[in-house]
């Protein structure tokens, strides 16, 4: 393999065109060499992004020997199918979150990738922003005392829901899969693995969760309180509360979408402290997985971590639908 990972893109999805593909192109150890889509739109998208090769089927792209890795931003219900096919084609993989619709699907992906010697990572880009490392440093330094609770919210007001793929249950739609997964992931980043969850949701007539909220139980009686929604104003934040203070991260998951960017805020009886932390999380994500591919190492955010995240999301959905506390 060359000193740069050669990437192919499966689909012309907006998240890829607007955010992830340009970030891969900004990275210092990557190049985007091909794009595939089942339609004529691939030509316009590839021209717009200056991608040299185009395919009108995903299968054709996977057969290209000049492609080392693929990015999969397909609808949620197609992630498992194309991860398995990419693995069988010996292509390394960056797959959009949620990698699967259940923990069992992620286990299938793990086996396929291991059997084929393929490196895979779920695209939780927020984990590569340095503001979270700074939050952990404050916690480790005892700035807020002993952690007692964490709150996390990710919501937005969906426009034109009748035509939005995230409102279709057969495509893996729902607020929890789409943005609520970030709240669960960030709890586990700071608090470890939860032991149980109780959750409620507002479902539409098709069974898609429009809004969800709940409480995760962690060891030492620490709790994680989350909410997520397609019908609330935009928020993507978390707050960690301790015995001596609290830390607030107002743009935890998409700091790139706000003029203020990344920042963390500490509040204690002694006053307030703020750190401004600007970082290109999408580029950092692309460079990390590409370095892992070049070095043959496991990503810091491994698929085993993805599996544990999906176990919690499975439990959240079970609790929401049954109205009971679920052990994880």
Automatic annotation (TrEMBL):
Residues 6-123 form the Gfo/Idh/MocA-like oxidoreductase N-terminal domain. Transmembrane segments: none annotated. It holds the Pfam family GFO_IDH_MocA_C3. The keyword Oxidoreductase applies. Residues 133-247 form the GFO/IDH/MocA-like oxidoreductase domain. Gene3D superfamilies: Dihydrodipicolinate Reductase, domain 2, NAD(P)-binding Rossmann-like Domain. Keywords: Oxidoreductase. The keyword Oxidoreductase applies. InterPro entries: Gfo/Idh/MocA-like_OxRdtase_N, Gfo/Idh/MocA_domain, GFO_IDH_MocA-like_dom, NAD(P)-bd_dom_sf. Belongs to the Gfo/Idh/MocA family. PANTHER family: OXIDOREDUCTASES (PTHR22604), TRANS-1,2-DIHYDROBENZENE-1,2-DIOL DEHYDROGENASE (PTHR22604:SF105). This is Dehydrogenase. It comes from Caldalkalibacillus horti.
């Amino acid at each position: 393999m060359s000193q740069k990972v050669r990437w192919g893109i499966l689909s012309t999805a907006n998240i890829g065109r607007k955010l992830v593909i340009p970030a891969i192109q900004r990275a210092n150890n990557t190049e985007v060499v091909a794009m595939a889509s089942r339609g004529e739109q691939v030509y316009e998208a590839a021209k717009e992004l200056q991608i040299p090769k185009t395919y009108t089927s995903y299968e054709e792209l996977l057969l290209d020997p000049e492609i080392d890795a693929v990015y999969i931003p397909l609808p949620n219900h197609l992630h498992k199918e194309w991860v398995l096919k990419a693995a069988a084609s010996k292509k390394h993989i960056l797959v959009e979150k949620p990698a699967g619709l259940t923990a069992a699907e992620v286990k299938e992906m793990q086996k396929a990738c291991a059997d084929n010697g393929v490196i895979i990572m779920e695209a939780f880009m927020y984990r590569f922003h340095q503001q979270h490392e700074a939050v952990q440093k404050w916690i480790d330094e005892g700035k807020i005392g002993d952690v007692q609770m964490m709150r996390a919210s990710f919501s937005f007001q969906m426009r034109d829901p009748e035509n939005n793929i995230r409102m279709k249950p057969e495509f893996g739609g729902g607020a929890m899969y789409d943005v609520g997964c970030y709240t669960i992931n960030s709890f586990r980043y700071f608090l470890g693995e939860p032991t149980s969850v109780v959750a409620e949701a507002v479902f539409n007539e098709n069974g898609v969760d429009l809004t969800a909220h709940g409480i995760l139980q962690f060891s030492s009686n620490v709790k994680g309180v989350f909410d997520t929604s397609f019908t609330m104003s935009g928020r993507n934040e978390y707050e960690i509360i301790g015995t001596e203070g609290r830390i607030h991260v107002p743009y935890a998951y998409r700091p790139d979408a706000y003029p203020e960017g990344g920042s963390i805020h500490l509040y204690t009886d002694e006053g307030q402290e703020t750190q401004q932390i600007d970082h290109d999380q999408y580029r950092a994500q692309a460079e990390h997985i590409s370095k892992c591919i070049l070095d043959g190492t496991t990503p810091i955010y491994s698929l085993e971590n993805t599996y544990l995240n999906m176990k919690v999301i499975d439990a959240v959905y079970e609790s929401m639908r049954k109205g009971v506390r679920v052990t994880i």
